[in-house]
Design brief:
By secondary structure, the chain is mainly alpha-helical. Helix content is about 65%, strand content about 5%. It starts with a helix and ends with a helix. The longest helix has about 30 residues. It contains 13 helices and 4 strands. A two-stranded antiparallel ribbon has the order 1-2. A two-stranded antiparallel ribbon has the order 3-4.
Length: about 375
């Protein structure tokens, strides 16, 4: 737990104090966010606000991960043996960094062209598929072996699983390695686009991501406390996952980094995360669902992202089939803007929706544990 707390604190402080530096740097570089002319009129006042702020909390997460591992050197050897840097960290941080890199290219092109249209849809889609495929293969084809203090092999789990999962793996839903890689790609695409579509108002996506990441930190730490690979855990009921403390440490670090960034990103935002941050967070959240074996729980945990994504899907289907729009504008948050709601009211109420989804998901996760041990 100490390592997780250290990672959270380091990530928060780095993000809190380095974001103002990023604001100055991106402002001097004239890396302002282009605003769509067809968007809500009130958004035109945000034109020129620096973007690509996601770079800050992505770097803060990586640095905090290292700091968390340095904190582990103060723990007893038995605990250190279970949480040495592993392939799990490579997959999770890789998904965050390289998904963020796809977003960075998009942001860079927007700034360079001085237009809201950056990387074209095919290019962005290809980047998401490539990142998902590469780290999906690593997660499925490269088991990371763990040894206890006596040198005995205790776990040889891969980061991902060849079965679909809800609270844990569902043995009846075996899909094989190729099928699992395809599922991982789909989850990466869904999560990255979901967070990206939610990132339309000051602090909305950042705050919702904090809740989801904090929930994954709790889930992973609970799995660590009831880990099948832990030689000190003697109960029959346990979780078969790969490096849960690693997962908790990274999730906590990312949540802390987002809280520090939110200080500057809340209304009125002085910097936007841009596609750099949105795709980076989406990639990490997808990795969390895969590594904690809770893929089918993700739509509940990230309920706000699902609702906002579905509003876009519904709008497109309705307009193309009937020529009519269901919403004044999509994504959904802009519908309420045009209905006269203030930006702060929309953000706070949507955060409440995000919190409800997280609470339901955590309740389902814990109730499954209670049902199994009673």
């Amino acid at each position: 737990m100490r390592a997780v707390i250290v990672a959270v604190g380091v990530a928060f402080l780095i993000s809190l104090f380095c974001t103002p530096i990023a604001i100055k740097v991106f402002t001097r570089l004239k890396a302002g966010q282009p605003i769509r002319a067809e968007g809500p009129a009130m958004h035109q006042t945000k034109k020129g606000t620096p973007t690509m702020g996601g770079v800050v909390f992505i770097l803060a997460t990586v640095i905090a991960y290292v700091a968390g591992h340095l904190a582990l050197t103060t723990l007893p050897d038995a605990q250190i043996a279970q949480v040495e840097p592993t392939i799990t960290a490579l997959v999770l941080l890789g998904l965050m960094v390289f998904s963020g890199a796809v977003g960075f290219i998009d942001d860079f092109l927007k700034v360079r062209k001085r237009h809201s249209g950056g990387l074209n849809k095919r290019g962005k889609l290809a980047g998401q598929i490539l990142v998902g495929a590469i780290f999906g293969v690593v997660a499925l084809y490269f088991p990371s072996t763990m040894y206890d203090v006596t040198g005995n092999r205790t776990n040889a789990e891969t980061v991902g699983s060849t079965t679909l999962s809800f609270i844990r793996d569902i043995p009846a839903l075996e899909i094989g390695k190729i099928g699992a890689v395809i599922v991982i790609i789909m989850v990466v695409m869904a999560a990255t686009n979901g967070v990206n579509l939610t990132d339309g108002l000051d602090g909305l996506a950042t705050g919702a991501s904090v809740m989801v990441l904090a929930a994954y930190a709790l889930i992973a730490f609970w799995q660590y406390r009831h880990w099948c690979a832990d030689p000190n855990y003697t109960e029959a009921y346990c979780y078969t996952v790969r490096d849960p403390l690693e997962i908790a440490l990274i999730a906590g670090a990312a949540a802390g980094a987002c809280v520090g960034f939110l200080w500057w990103n809340t209304s009125p935002a002085r910097i936007f995360m841009g596609d750099t941050g949105a795709l980076g967070l989406g990639g990490l959240i997808a990795g969390m669902a895969m590594s904690t074996r809770t893929i089918l729980l993700l739509p509940i945990l990230g309920g706000l992202f699902v609702i906002i994504t579905m509003s876009v899907v519904i709008q497109i289907i309705s307009f193309r089939t009937t020529g009519k729009r269901v919403f004044r504008m999509s994504p959904l948050q802009h519908h309420f803007e045009l209905a006269g709601w203030s930006e702060v009211n929309i953000v706070v109420r949507f955060w409440i929706i995000a919190g409800i989804g997280v609470a339901i998901a955590l309740g389902l996760f814990y109730s499954e544990f209670l049902a199994a041990v009673t």
